[in-house]
Amino acid sequence: MVTIYLRYVIDPYKLAEFEHYGKLWIPLVNRMGGRHHGYFMPSEGANNIALALFSFPTLAAYEQYRSASQTDAECQAAFRYADDTRCIVSYERSFFRPVLEGSSQENAP
Q1: Which residue among 14, 76, 79, 82 is least packed, with the fewest CB closer than 10 Å?
Q2: Are strands 49-56 and 35-40 parallel, antiparallel or unpaired?
Q3: Residue 66 domain boundaries
C-alpha cells in the first residue's frame, strides 16, 4: 500500500472554496480505486496550510489513477474549480508506506 500526502499552501481568504474542492475529490479518489482519508483544514497555527491523505494498493494503481484523472470529466471539473477560484497557492506531494496494526514488512515494496 502507498499513502499519498499532499501539503497545500492555500489562500486563507478562500477556505470555503478549498474545502469545497476537497469535498469534490474525496469521492473521485474512492471511485477510481483509492481510499481517501480526508482533507485537514487549518485550525490552530498557520491559517494557510491544509493536508490531504489517500491510499492506493500499489504505486502502479496510483499512477493509473493519475493517468485516468486526466481524461475523467469529473476530475477535470475539479481541477478547473481550483484554477477558477485560485484557492490553492501551491502544493507538494510525498509518498509513504503506512505501518498499520497487523501489517508486516513482507508487504513492503
Answers
A1: 76
A2: antiparallel
A3: 2-93
Residue 45, Cα to own-chain centre: how many angstroms? 21
Residue whose entry in the numeric block shows the C-alpha cell 497487523? 102
Asked, for residue 11, whether it belongs to a domain, the answer is yes
Specify the DSSP class assigned to residue 71. Answer: T
Above 50 in pLDDT, residue 109? no
Q: What does the alpha-carbon distance between residue 73 and residue 70 come to, in Å, rounded to a whole number?
A: 8
pLDDT of residue 104: 62
Identify whether 30 is part of a domain. Answer: yes
Residue predicted with more confidence, 100 or 36: 36
Q: How many domains does the chain have?
A: 1
pTM (predicted TM-score):
0.86
CATH of the domain at 88: 3.30.70.100
109 vs 83: which has the higher pLDDT? 83
Averaged pLDDT, 89-102? 91
Whole-number Cα distances in Å, 83 to 39, 57, 77, 78, 86: 18, 29, 10, 9, 5
